[in-house]
Amino acid sequence: MTTEVRVPTLGESVTEATVATWFKKPGDAVAIDEMLCELETDKVTVEVPSPAAGTMGDIVAAEGETVGVDALLATIAEGGEAAAPAAPAAEQKPQADAPAPSGGDSLDVMVPTLGESVTEATVSTWFKAVGDSVAQDEMLCELETDKVSVEVPAPAAGVLAEISAPEGTTVDATAKLAVISSSGAVAAAPAAAPAPTGSSSSKDVEDAPSAKKAMAEAGVSRDQVTGTGRDGRVMKDDVAKAVAAAASAPAPVAAPRGPVSADDASREERVKMTRLRQTIAKRLKDSQNTAAMLTTYNEVDMTEVMALRNEYKDLFLKKHGVKLGFMSFFTKACVHALKEVPEVNAEIDGTDVVYKNFVHMGIAAGTPSGLVVPVIRDADAMSFAAIEKAIAEKGARARDGKLSMAEMQGGTFTISNGGVYGSLMSSPILNPPQSGILGMHKIQDRPMAIKGQVVIRPMMYLALSYDHRIVDGKGAVTFLVRVKEALEDPRRLLMDL
Question: What distance in Å separates the CA atoms of residue 462 and residue 424, rounded to the nearest whole number?
């Protein structure tokens, strides 16, 4: 049986890629999810895993070729025997991807699939020590990428014989993490386990064809570029970064710390930022530097929503198996307002404005590791119950660090609820490339003038941050007013008013 290897989804607005490197050749044995080749787009580098185990067949798209989404890259003969190598053993490149067993009764624990465009991770925590007994599927360690945390389960029962990547080690997507012995034998700790660096192996590394072309066009020499690909391979994006760095003035550095007394220094604790926190910091700063961000404010009387929720919450829970919260009301209200002000649901792509005829709603969620934004797809076509179920399920996965990259991509608008932490007023930051984000806040009883009378009402401040490059002040204010109207009279949502 033959299985086709095709170009995976490359991301929003990316329609083609260049085949940079093949890690396998025809006749090689491949395991399921083993990396076959690397593709380059104008935005990211994508590794293509094997969809099945078997023998590498024909390579249809050679290195340097440009291919579209879903194009045929190669074929795999499932269950076939590996063909005899055509080249002498001395000329063959060692296969770091293949999970070679370390002994007859031992099994290597490899880095699991990290997700599209994620090529490395940091070992954050080992839950087991060398010599500990482990059960199959028991969690051995936790990896951190710049997107999510990944737990690594034991592939078999036995004894943890060796830890190849201690805590704090940065590993690539095909690295060995540990060895499990079914007999209970424990390997002696290696004297040193230095990870190979790009510089030490650069002589034997073939740079991506697109990178070579870009270096030639830009007049940049190989030693001026730092390769971030596998084994220090230079990728197209590395060349662009080197050219940009050479053309721009040195970036300003943070001011050095002032003098710290010995007594104060002894009471400080220095902790390295996690990869997720570094990525959050970079993305938020990039958002400020790129978008013409502005915030407009309003307030909403939550009386009617709270009354409706209290009246139906028990019946809602009994029928749908999920609690009726405020988020479904706000999601529905935003969907309603986005239909009237579509530019808030749009994004800028170069000199084009891309209008979305759908709503993929991002719901910002705080986790122990940092802020993540799972996306509720096609929220505009969902019921209150479906929205509440989706928010509950993705919120739980976010807290457990089990969200995949796909679940955090593609959002068109975001809602952030700082009210759960007691925030009374704030200005949320845009989640690029989106053009709008709604900030919810704490519900607080305040005296309000209603029909000439001062009454106490549960009020909430709302904030809409928007990209002023495509959203005018009139559109932003209109959007927020429509959200306010829908929440103060929820019947408008049912009648699409």
Answer: 9
Mapping DSSP to helix (H, G, I), strand (E, B) and coil, where does residue 450 land? strand
Helix, strand, coil shares of the chain, percent, nearest 5, are 30, 30, 45
Q: Evaluate whether the domain defined by 278-495 bears CATH number 3.30.56.10.
A: no
User: What fold does the segment set 1-96 form as a domain?
Assistant: OB fold (Dihydrolipoamide Acetyltransferase, E2P) (2.40.50)
Q: What is the pLDDT confidence band of residue 317, given thresholds at 50, 70 and 90?
A: very high
Task: Return d(Cα 416, Cα 253) in angstroms, integer.
Answer: 31
Q: Is 468 marked active-site?
A: yes
| pLDDT tens readout for residues 238-283 | 777 777 776 654 545 555 666 778 878 788 888 777 766 677 777 7
- Integer Cα distance of 436 and 432 in angstroms: 9
Which one is catalytic: 132, 137, 378, 472? 472
Instruction: Report the alpha-carbon distance of residue 8 to residue 37 in Å, rounded.
Output: 12
Cα torsion 419, 421, 426, 428: sign: negative
For the question of residue 472 being annotated catalytic, the response is: yes
Active-site choice (137, 468, 489, 496)? 468
- Top-confidence range, 29-33, 38-42, 266-270: 29-33
- What gap in Å lies between CA 282 and CA 251, rounded to an integer? 14
